[in-house]
Amino acid sequence: QSALTQPPSASGSPGQSVTISCTGTSSDVGGYNYVSWYQQHPGKAPKLMIYEVSKRPSGVPDRFSGSKSGNTASLTVSGLQAEDEADYYCSSRAGSNNVLFGGGTKLTVL
Amino acid sequence: QVQLVESGGGVVQPGRSLRLSCVASGFMFSNYGMHWVRQAPGKGLEWVAVIWSDGSNKYYADSVKGRFTISRDDSKNTLYLQMINLRAEDTAVYYCATEGGQLSFCESWGQGTLVTVSS
Question: I need a surface site. Which of A13, A92, B53, B117 has the fewest CB within 10 A?
């Protein structure tokens, strides 16, 4: 199966909001409420930011939110801060025995 | 707190084998499914394999099926990834991660171990 589709880059100024999309199919994103988002700073391990489409783990700021419509999921970062600059990856369950990641989006805080 | 420490990476020639380990602490390892996820240099994340908490089910990405085997030893709080017939395209940082349930998400991640396949 192909990776989920994300834009390679996104950007915004401090304080602004930015939304990153993640497009799949009815066999993955559209078929399950098991979309998750990860933040990765250079040289670091990924960090879970959103799970099950819109849930936030403890400790993740409420500036981060997730949603889904059809085969496309979205991550919105509100009130952008310098430390939000990182790579972001979406992921989805795909069938009964598979997991897919998106290609990643590099978020730049201008 | 949850801690996952991978080891076993290194430089290996194409066609050879390698076994990665991931030692878990700070949580009840036997209650959690576990993933391996890899990241080639400068590239995105790629899911590799998952094992259920009781070890009853193991699933693999098509790219590694038949060459990689995921296993666990709950008495040692350790997850393994046995890799055989390694190829250049297997070069990556390999991360272990806890499974959130229902193949829903990777909750906690280790720091990764680098595997380089090169002659």
Answer: A13
Residue B68: exposed, middle, or buried by beta-carbon count in 10 A (0-12, 13-18, 19+)? Answer: buried
Other CB atoms within 10 Å distance of the CB of residue A107 = 20
pLDDT digits (tens, 9 = 90+) for A57-79: 999 999 999 999 999 999 999 99
pLDDT in tens, A20-70: 999 999 999 999 999 999 999 999 999 999 999 999 999 999 999 999 999
Radius of gyration of chain B measured on its C-alpha atoms: 13
Residues B44, A89: C-beta atoms closer than 8 Å: yes
Rounded-to-integer distance, Cα B118 and Cα B41, Å: 14
Q: Which residue of B has its CA nearest to A87?
A: B44
Give A96's pLDDT tier (boundaries 50, 70, 90).
confident
Which residues of chain B are within 8 Å of residue A2 when distances are taken between CB atoms? none
Give the DSSP letter of residue A79: S
Which residue would you say has higher pLDDT here, B13 or A1? B13
